[in-house]
Write a structure and sequence with these properties.
This protein is α/β, with parallel strands linked by helices and 240 residues long. It has helices at residues 3-29, 48-56, 67-76, 95-98, 111-124, 150-156, 177-195, 216-221, and strands at residues 38-42, 61-64, 83-86, 104-108, 128-133, 163-169, 207-209, 226-229. An eight-stranded parallel β-sheet has the order 7-6-5-4-3-2-1-8. It is globular and about 55 Å long. Bound molecules: pyridoxal-5'-phosphate. Pyridoxal-5'-phosphate binds at residues 42, 44, 65, 87-88, 171, 212-214, 228-232.
Length: 240
Amino acid sequence: MVDSQAQKARRIQQNLARVLERMAEAAHRSGRKPEEVRLVAVTKYVGPEEIRWLVEAGCRLLGESRPQALWAKAATLTDLPIQWHLVGHLQRNKVARTLPLVQMIQSVDSLRLLEALNQQAAKLGRAIPVLLEVNISGEASKTGLPPQELEPILAQLPEFPYVQVQGLMTLAGLEGGAERARRDFAALRQLRDQLQPHCPEGVRLDELSMGMSSDFEAAIQEGATMVRIGAALFEGILPD
Ligand SMILES: *Cc1c(COP(=O)(O)O)cnc(C)c1O
């Protein structure tokens, strides 16, 4: 490795340590255990080389928002023990190619996608864990299901035995800053609590995937079990 590469690798290691430390502090502040919150490192800004450093630094759970980027990265990093999560929109015509590569799809945003996933997972003979993505802020630019659509979808889950819904995912609204983000995260938790009694037998909405680089501490205080962090892990590596 040339020197600058060693420096970059070290910088990623430091960034990761700092993020994990901040996650643990946020957990302690809200009376939670650090191991209740998992880090999903979102690698959409970087290539295979940086991802390799991140994995060598101890990060195993990685997220990509675009299916094609996930395919390409997964294909060049097959030697690493990575667990991939898709965190962005999945079109149904990309389900077949994506499913064998991922451990979870966090961004299920329609009943039709749920159907397609069930069909393909049945073919593979392997159930796929998913989260339902909720547009909790109501912003038109946001993807995700409107909150009122969740209850009918949950009622239909017994028709999709190869899809295991494990919780909810959201992105906080863009406007309104930290206060707004915190309210959105609290709203997702409250929605989960309301929906839990309406879940079919065997379905539990334990996972709450919420919080990114700018707002993950608030998300942890509001009950996140997974935070999806990109930019904070690659500070000092990316061009500004
Ligand atoms: C990019 C992205 C993230 C990470 O955002 P950062 O601000 O870079 O931490 C999280 N979730 C989704 C769905 C994303 O697309």
